[in-house]
Structure prediction request, 659 residues.
Amino acid sequence: MDWFSYLVAGILVYIAVAIFILGITFRIYQWFSVNRSSVKLGMFPKPKNRWARGFKLFKDTFLYPQVLGVDAAMWFFVLLLHFGGIAAFVGHLRLFNEFTFIANALGDEGMAKFAMWSGGTIGIILLVSVTYLIMRRFKSPYKDLSTPEDYLLLVLVLVILLFGNHLRFFGDVHVAEYREYIHSLLAFRPAFPEAIVESSTKWVLVSHVLTSNLLFIYFPFSKLIHSVGTFAGNLIRSEV
Amino acid sequence: MDEQARQTIAGEIDKRMNRQLLYYLDICTRCSICKDACHQYVTTGDILYLPAYRAEIIRRVYKKYFTRSGRLYPAISEGLEVDDRLLDELYKTAYACTGCRRCMYFCPFSIDTTWFMAIAKAMLIAAGKGSKILTELAGAAVIKGENIDLFKDIIAETLKDTEKELQERVGDPKAMIPIGKKGSELLYVALAGTHTILPTAVIFHQAKANWTLSLFEAANYGYFLGDVKQATQIARRIIDEAKSLDVKEIVITECGHAYRVVQFLYETWAKEKLPFKIRGIVELMAEYIKQGKISIAQGMIKEPLTYHDPCQVGRNGGFYEEPRYIIHQVAADYREMTPNREKNWCCGGGGGLVAQPDMDDLRIQTGARKVEQIKMTGAEIVVSPCENCRLQLDSLNEKYSMGIKITSLMDLVAGAISG
Prediction:
């Protein structure tokens, strides 16, 4: 591993993960260190019981059905982005350990094809949805309201996706080598296996990791914290 | 404006900070879904009325004065300094907001813009730039509360004619409008004038209710002004009166914000638990009909009739079915507005706008959605249990030449009482 790769795909990964976890913890601490107003802000009709309130929270947080009624295109692309993001996260878990139950069912070749198709589809879906959100930012009234942070985050995610899709569609490194790299990180001895070092896509991987690190570092201090706070916000909606 | 003044004005954000507000400051993604929810933005296209922008102004001031990033690199975080231009913008956006919370319904994070507007108003008041007319009206209400003995005789005198009208309507020379009757079961809080007293008195007479009329009007201009201290003082007049008369419940007339203030906000503001029940007259009328305490001439209104859900009665008050139940008793041709209930459009007159002459043009322009809704029903009568809504609907009726009749639920019920 050259010194730059070691710094970015090694040391910085630990720093980014630490800042991500501590940052989110700090933000939650910040919220809880301020007193709640005892005014009930919920709107009517209110859910009839705790189960109904929980269901409503789940529905409003993950499906935001109200948005469909006023901006169907936004609803569609944001839904793609969020579920695509969750799917991408799950897909990356394969780099830690093989999904043996699927691999056993499909066989090695079938698994590789499945990963190629599912990962590729998700990569494209994410790219399309982020592109939509970026284009939307350049239209009024969204552009009049947008802050540098709004563009920065979208561009950062776009770049991560471009590198990720490059690795998926044009990379010559296989999952076993990526897994070896991830395991080296887990063992606190970050190193690229020979196949990555010699690969032409090594710098794409380093760039993918670098931009992902930046996103992880910025995440807790940006509006992406809505991914945590949305639960609290949507719970307020049905306060009784 | 000197630095100390800026700090004092911005300090209102810190003073009013709470956990819910901090969530809102942190989680808004500026997706602007709310743009299609606000009747003011939809009808004007002015970004000042876009709910996310309304909140963003406060967020930027907060960043400038209360976050490290805002202090260190305000250009990137877009921190906003308090100055006259900002205060002008705050005035236009805050005193224009009707507080309907339709944006909160559609927001994927359920962000309540009215909290940002409450802060904006507090900042304006700290800068000595609160709405003049609302300041005067709130001040007058406070003075009345402090000098109620001076007003008692005038109120009693004014009510003599109304009492005669009541006696004629119900055919009972002993029918009364009681004031200050100790031990009454309920204290009815009406609005200034007699238009919300007479129909209710007819209903109470028929229901044989043990009631008394409050010396105070339900409207709370301190709430519209954004001055929590005055709003509390104004509401406290009613609470203290109810305590002194030892009533079992307070019944608020058809006035959305007045009900919301006493039912949902007063206990937090005054830091006291109320020893009696608070109800809206709509709920009570529905109960009277269901219990057979008043009998209604079924379907006596033949003209097509529609119902406007006032934001503070429906979305923010919880009464969707009671008014409809009452209307179904009286009207033969009821037509539902689209959308309705929690998705209903604000009429454009709430939040004290009908009391602010400088907002007249705006509220007429932004009432266009409501006009479209009403026209689509083909109704000739519009019922709404909120004084602000009715005043706004009256204005819309005149300006848009709609040729409709606007009425309260109380009048509808009082006019349909049989037997």
Q: What stands out?
A: The longest helix of chain A spans residues 100-137. The radius of gyration of chain A is 21 Å.
